[in-house]
Amino acid sequence: MLRITDTRTGHLVEVPAAPRHLLRSRVQLPDIGTGADTGIGLGPVHLRVPLIGDVLARTAELNGLQVITVLTTPELTPDRARALDRVMAVLGIHPPAVVGAHRPDAALGGPADVHVVSEGTHPAGAEGGALIEVGRVTTAPPTPDLPVPGTPDPADTADPLAVRLLLLTSPYRTPVTVTGAALAEARRTLRDWRRSVADWAQEPSRPIPADLLRQSYAALAEDLDVAAVLALLAELADRSDVPPGAKFETFAHLDRVLGLDLARDVGHQRPS
Predict the structure, then answer these.
(1) Most distant CA pair in the chain: distance in Å?
(2) Which residues contact 271 (CB under 8 A, 6 or more apart)?
(3) Rounded Cα–Cα distance for residues 177 and 118 (Å)
(4) 88: burial class by Cβ within 10 Å (0-12, 13-18, 19+)?
(5) How many Cβ atoms are within 10 Å of 129's Cβ, its own excluded?
(6) Average of pLDDT values for 1-19?
(7) 51, 69, 254, 269: which has the fewest C-beta neighbours closer than 10 Å?
(8) What is the CB neighbour count within 10 angstroms for residue 9?
(9) Are 29 and 46 in contact (CB under 8 A)?
(10) pLDDT in tens, 169-180
(11) From CA 51, how far away is CA 34, in angstroms rounded?
(12) Pairwise CA distance, residues 16 & 130, whole Å
């Protein structure tokens, strides 16, 4: 069972409401604004909504549902549309079935079960289905040696998935301020976890502890509490009572929802 807080009522509702195995998700990209058609202005401020739509889809699939996602957008030039595709790809956001649909219900094959929008947005045609309002993202002025991220660049030496981790660390309704210091901390966390996962992968595999699996699934199924899952993993990494092989299986399994490429360094350990 997957339950989401409907912003209209403040109550948890089950999605999809009907007894079926298909979740129809409509995600609305916030207005990108003006600027050159080079992708300038596309960044965490706009991409948190598609990111939460991606986490919703991944969680639903983990719960045995099929998912179809439509991303509705403002009018985009071809260059801006290609920039959107590139930035979503480097942030690990799975491609929606349709982008820019003017008739989302037709693209979804029926009314949406859930609408994912930016806080304060009231999209037309969202009367039915649960409404998820995603907290806004702001960026702080850069500090020396710690620039604030703009558009995640595939050619950037910095890991763009650190932006994904940073945006997932807070509950989706909570506003987020992206700072250079917070991004640097997210990069360190990713680096440390990937090194640990690579090391644990060398040990004999062990089952995921039942209590950890139950807690993580419950957190995800109850209003997409990814922040609780990240806290669980941070605690698990330091536990001496859990075998390395079980730690590896837990991190790898939950990364199906987190999308942080935590097993990237497996097989590329540093020489001892």
Answers:
(1) 59
(2) none
(3) 15
(4) buried
(5) 22
(6) 91
(7) 269
(8) 10
(9) yes
(10) 999 999 999 998
(11) 22
(12) 9
Please list, in sequence order, all residues whose beta carbon lies within 8 angstroms of the beta carbon of residue 51, skipping any fewer than 6 positions away. 91, 93, 164, 167, 168
Average model confidence (pLDDT) across the chain:
88
Here the tokens at position 161 are 């998935």
Q: Which residues of 223-238 are buried (b: 16+ CB within 10 A; e: fewer)?
A: bbbbebbbebbeebbe
User: What is the residue-wise DSSP string for the chain?
Assistant: --EEEETTTTEEEESSSSSSSEEEEEEEPPP--S--TTSTT-SHHHHHHHHHHHHHHHHHHHTT-EEEEEEE-S---HHHHHHHHHHHHHTTPPPPSEES-SSHHHHHTS--SEEEEETT---TT-SSSEEEEEPPEEEPPPBTTBPPP-S--TT-SS-THHHHHHHHSS-TTS-EEE-HHHHHHHHHHHHHHHHHHHHHTTSPP-PPPHHHHHHHHHHHHBT--HHHHHHHHHHHHT-SSS-HHHHHHHHHHHHHHH---TTTTTT-PPP-
The label of the residue with tokens 């790898």 reads 252
- The string of pLDDT tens digits covering residues 112-165 is 999 999 998 877 767 789 999 999 999 876 544 444 444 454 444 468 899 999
- Terminal CA-to-CA distance of the chain, rounded, Å? 45
The tokens describing 2, both together, are 């997957």
